[in-house]
Design a protein that fits this description.
Shape: globular
Order of helices and strands: EHEHEHEHHHHEHEHEEEEHEH
Structural class: alpha/beta
Number of domains: 2
Radius of gyration: 19 Å
CATH superfamily of the largest domain: NAD(P)-binding Rossmann-like Domain
Mean pLDDT: 96
Number of helices: 11
Distance between the termini: 52 Å
Bound molecules: NADPH dihydro-nicotinamide-adenine-dinucleotide phosphate
CATH class of the largest domain: Alpha Beta
CATH topology of the largest domain: Rossmann fold
Low-confidence stretches: none
Length: about 290
């Protein structure tokens, strides 16, 4: 069994991004610029927010934080989101979730400029993504791949396992993780089964899987003895009880059967933030190219 840790791939990608950031700064005078909108002070998102700000700094990406008060109106928040979309100095925008209950997540997400949507959450961006059938054509399109799904695929590629024709099972169908991961696996020519909370016979489905992607947020949902011998297991699930972080897969028993398995924490997580930086640099490159081409 090989442990698929996120850190080595993350460090390698970060080196590339630093180079691309430097050459962008030479061409246009400024490094890529990410704007983060945070409404109120939700404690669960504060840890990730600090991690993102530090990661930007490490990569030489400029990052500005728009800290908005908890009681801000939707109209005012919409105005700020749209202004950042129109601002030529901004390459990427993140709207931190969760939002206070009086703000509509759909209305605000839909107001994000799709070409600056570095988390890949807008309907326009997702539509662009699902119209492509190959990973290479996504890179060449206007789409930005949601970061966790991209991290999952990168870890799969790190294994060197040939994917075409393999049976991949994704557990979880959110717009941000499960669905895009399933689409990317299909772009790699895997045969994909997408499971969710109403799926029956999860054990049977998983026991036939060459590749398992867990993204349900249910600790221990996937039993070790369901795992097919020699398979690849990528666990994106993160659940914290305040003391320890757990994935969706029973790690100790699954590791005895899998050929490759991600640890939790230390697997998908470290790469997810790096793919956020990746999308910011990509967005900056695409925007600069468009400006230079006039
Ligand atoms: P959501 O809650 O949006 O989606 C969870 C999905 O899991 C849903 O599709 C749900 O089904 C499905 N599900 C829930 N229970 C079961 C079950 N018993 N059997 C099968 N499927 C089930 O979560 P996210 O997609 O946002 O996140 C998923 C996990 O990934 C979480 O643990 C989250 O913390 C983690 N995460 C990790 C990141 C990282 O960097 N590693 C980044 C982002 C998220 P249904 O649609 O029917 O409700």
């Amino acid at each position: 069994m090989t442990l698929l840790k996120g850190k080595p791939a993350s460090e390698e990608l970060l080196l590339q991004l630093k180079r691309r950031t430097r050459s962008l700064a030479e061409v246009r005078g400024d490094p890529p610029h990410l704007a983060v909108i945070a409404v109120g002070g939700d404690p669960s998102s504060q840890i990730y927010l600090r991690r993102k700000l530090q990661a930007c700094k490490d990569a030489g990406i400029e990052c500005t934080l728009e800290s908005l008060p908890e009681n801000i109106t939707e109209a005012e928040t919409l105005r700020i989101v749209k202004n950042l979309g129109d601002d030529p100095a901004v390459d990427g925008i993140i709207l931190e979730l969760p939002l206070p209950p009086h703000l509509s997540e759909n209305a605000l997400t839909d107001a994000l400029a799709p070409e600056k949507d570095v988390e890949g959450v807008t309907r326009i961006n997702l539509g662009r993504l699902y119209c492509e059938k190959k990973l290479e054509s996504i890179e060449e399109s206007d789409a930005l791949i949601p970061c966790t799904a991209h991290a999952i695929i990168r870890l799969l590629r790190e294994t060197g396992v040939s994917v075409p024709g393999k049976h991949a099972v994704v557990v979880g169908r959110s717009n941000i993780v499960g669905k895009p991961a399933a689409h990317l696996l299909s772009c790699l020519d895997a045969t994909v089964t997408l499971c969710h909370s109403k799926s029956s016979d999860l054990d049977t489905i998983i026991s036939g899987a060459d590749i398992v992607v867990a993204a349900a947020g249910r600790p221990g949902l996937i039993r070790g003895n369901w795992i097919k011998r020699g398979s690849v297991v990528i666990d994106a699930g993160i659940t914290s009880d305040g003391r320890k972080i757990q994935g969706d897969v029973e790690f100790e028993s699954a590791r005895r059967r899998a050929a490759f398995i991600t640890p939790v924490p230390g697997g998908v997580g470290p790469l997810t933030v790096t793919y956020l930086l990746y999308n910011t640099v990509l967005s900056a490159e695409r925007r600069t190219k468009k400006t230079l081409e006039g």
